[in-house]
Amino acid sequence: MEKMVRNLLGVTGILIGASVVGLPLMSTHAAPQTFVCQDGTEGVGPLLCRASDEDESNVRLNVDHTISLDAVATGGIVQVNAEAARQGTISATVSSSAPYTVSLSAAQPNLSNADKTHSIPAKSTVQAGTSAWGIKKITETDGTLANAANYTAITTKPEVFYESTKSADKQKIDFEAGVSVDAGVPAGLYSTEVTVTAAIK
Q1: What is the pTM of this model?
Q2: Number of helical H runs and strand E runs in the chain
Q3: Alpha carbon 168 to chain centroid, angstroms
Q4: What residues have CB less than 8 Å from 99, skipping those under 6 apart?
Q5: Mind listing the pLDDT tens digit for each residue in 48-78?
Q6: Residues 178, 186: Cα–Cα separation, whole Å
Q7: How far, CA to CA in Å, does 18 sit from each of 9, 73, 134, 166, 183?
Q8: Quick one: average pLDDT of 122-139?
Q9: Whose CA is closest to 105, among 20, 174, 172, 16?
């Protein structure tokens, strides 16, 4: 089962979709229980008999790992011009009973304006005077999260942008999105839909 959550980031705009991966599963197994009736007979049933104090009954409960992508949000519209690169934020909040990964992808990696006549390409190099946008991966050292030094271009194939070392309870992860444009990019709102996927490792 999956659920899509959409919000506008902008950079002239990034539209985000979130996929929830992993649902709680559980199953129970109970061993047969012997019942003792008032007349001393066994096995007639619980409606007519009481459970014997001497009998052992084993109940086993198996709960699979669970994971949920609780929220995906963006930092609002990012205003950008050819003079400098600008940054925005894509945030995901994850709860997981085991170490997990967060992957990003997009069916249309480039940011496009409303009528699809102009676009800003997904690239790993974001710098003033060039048209590009990318997202920084997140590393974890001794429980501290940090953005990578360089940007990574989003592609149509899900790529891991964060890998946890432990379980989490509503851990917020902030991915830095950067964008730059050249002087020839027409003004307007540019956007795409990014899919954020959380999965058990």
Answers
A1: 0.69
A2: 0, 16
A3: 12
A4: 163, 164, 165, 166, 167, 200, 201
A5: 555 554 555 566 666 777 888 876 777 677 8
A6: 18
A7: 13, 9, 18, 22, 33
A8: 94
A9: 16
